[in-house]
Amino acid sequence: MVSIMKKVDHPNIVNLVEVIDDPSTDHFYMVLEYIEGKRFCDSASNRLGEVVARKYLRDIIAGLMYLHAHNIVHGDIKPDNLLITTKDTVKILDFSVSQIFVDDNDELQRSPGTPVFNAPECCLGSKYHGKAADTWALGITLYWMIVGQYPFIGDTLPETYDKIVSNPLLIPEDISPQLKNLLEGILCKDPKLRLSLSAVAEHPWIVEELGPIPQHLCICKRRILQEGIPVA
């Protein structure tokens, strides 16, 4: 986790400020940026409207696109791992199960994420692509924001996995056609047919009201260290 957090810097990610190694206790401590706000899961006990959900989702997409651009798979996108600042900005946190790849090959064998957010391919025990699984978890988070509950959940872990793999996606009738189309695309059970994160970012429901998601000029800290890029 620490090695990954040292490499990232983005306004939609809770950033690492410093790591303190205490030789007297053989422990180290992470100092994170101070965030005034609350956990995302504490702010949405009821269904969110599409306007609010769109704004929050755009923030999550911006942070996740930055991670994926630097070959980092978060691995546990969910409301519990999101913070809302007092300025109503969403920030991604908790990189405890995240992984970084040396190239674009994001193939993984085991999913350490939260079961109800696991993609169908993760539930089958076979190899899967981490970025596509992150995108599925983003879709479950969006569904939770809009509907107020999870689309696939059982009384036991095997039952939950069975529903994720086999049950159809049920979307309430009061959801707009564009959002329905987005949910169906992002929660497509076949990872090869699922919307990519970049396609989600360009979806009409995302961009028609607010325009394209801003691409922040955040340089990966790894590049700063490797290339000696000056930082103001």
From TrEMBL:
Sequence ranges assigned to domain Protein kinase in this UniProt record: 1-206
Pfam families, per database record: Pkinase
SUPFAM superfamilies: Protein kinase-like (PK-like) (SSF56112)
GO cellular component: cytoplasm
Gene Ontology biological-process entries: intracellular signal transduction
Range of residues in the leader sequence: none
Source species of the chain: Stephania japonica
Protein name listed in UniProt: Protein kinase domain-containing protein
InterPro entries: Kinase-like_dom_sf (IPR011009), Prot_kinase_dom (IPR000719), Ser/Thr_kinase_AS (IPR008271)
